[in-house]
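Lab notebook page, bench 4
Experiment: in silico fold of construct C2
Operator: M.H.
Input chain length: 145 residues
Purpose: comparison with the prior construct
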Amino acid sequence: MVQRDLVDGTSDEALEAGASTITVAHARALVQQFAEVTTSKDVGAFISGFTDDCVVHYGQFPEIRGKAALRDFMTKMFPPRLKDFTCRKTLRSLSGNVIGVTWISEWTDAQSGNKRKKGRGFEFWIMRGDRIARWDAAFNVWNDD
């Protein structure tokens, strides 16, 4: 089943891309790939996994539309002050073209006096082929004392 009636208006084109089912093995491979790319903090590699017309809702930030805007956002999210950054992602759900993921990140924050930080996030991807057409995510951060 493909979601069609979302309140905030995900395009029918993005939603209808789920007519072909993504296998569990393929979804796990995509999640692993995004975990590796996120850990690398390589903004170019990260945004290459998104469609040109992607829509992103990340936490409290304003809606992001398109790869250029996503590049600007991710450049700010992956600053050099994040030392020893790691991201582990886990596939939690798969339905048509919708992939649900949780992730845990850890890093040393040079700006706060080299404090260890940890975070946990939840995200949903609406896929078009092997690329994310819509990314909805929330992320919580705390000191790892």
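Observations: Residues 12-143 form a domain with the Nuclear Transport Factor 2; Chain: A, fold (CATH 3.10.450.50). Residues 1 and 95 are 7 Å apart (CA to CA).
Next step: discuss at group meeting.
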